[in-house]
Amino acid sequence: MAESSAVLPRVVLVTGASTFLGGYLVARLAANPQIERVLAVDSRVPRKDLLRRMGRAEFLRLDIRRPTIAKALVSYEVDTVVHAATSIADTAPHSAAIKEFNVVGAMQVCAACQRTPSVKRLVLRSTGMVYGSSAHDPSHFSEETRARREPKRGYGRDLLDVEGYVRGLGRRRPDIDITIVRPQAMLGPRITTRMGSYLSAPVVPTVIGYQPRLQFLHEEDALAAMEHVTLAGKPGTFNLSGEGVVTLSQAIRRVGHVELPVPSGLLAPIAGVFQDLRSAKLRSSQTEFLTYGRVLDTTRMRTELGFVPRYTTMETLDDFVKRSGVTPVIGTDVWRALEQRVVSAAHQLQ
């Protein structure tokens, strides 16, 4: 892999411009006068308020699964590509269509970069989900630690494959700096994530007998980290997370909601009972995460990448509670109604 040239990018193309992470990253880069041109790419038009924030950035309505992405790289002589389209994982339940978008989209982006001589830097927004979650996990995952039980499906599996394509590009084009970032679960007052939805439910189901250890990354730190790696051009793979660890029970109490311990097989069905109360739709990979947790070693982030998050894990959680509109109190009448629905759902599953 190439050594970092530490040269600021001239023309930056960011995929996933309609998402929170991609769109607000475009806005930050467009505000930097040292960058000559910023291109925002997505198949969907961003919200009007987000488009206004992008300022001088140019929006290109392109589907990254199509060869047109290669034409854009060549036409604008792009030197830095930030593949942030995977941030769709923040809100959407995984599906075959999402898998196609993640995997085929990444293949097209990598192929386009390989064929474009001007491209010298690629940044991939991956995820901490590539480590999976199991009872055999180490206390902390470093960037070199392989998952004890690799994800077989979902976003974790998708991004493992995508990371493979990106590393393959690095071998074929050793002159391109490859940077992969793996953020932990993100929380914040503006971003909508499945973890935020899960904690926002007044009654939060958990797995009986387990106390998963968690970390959080504040939305502002996620954006700052993406901007940092884009400008720094530091090649390598980096875990991203706020300092400190919190257990799931501590997080629920901090939010001011009620924990409801249930058998592991009932976690997803019971969470579905609270769907209209903003609880997340849980899938198998999420159930494993909420059973065993996941903690990342961020030494490399601080020492090699030179990035230090502003918010700790606990401060991220507190800011989420303070500014996202989460109601920390549940009324007696609401509790009785929810209890009846839980009992009814449990009887139906027997």
From TrEMBL:
SUPFAM superfamilies named in the record: NAD(P)-binding Rossmann-fold domains
Boundaries of every NAD-dependent epimerase/dehydratase domain copy: 12-239
Protein name: NAD-dependent epimerase/dehydratase domain-containing protein
Species of the source: Gordonia alkanivorans CGMCC 6845
Superkingdom as given in the UniProt entry: Bacteria
Pfam families linked: Epimerase
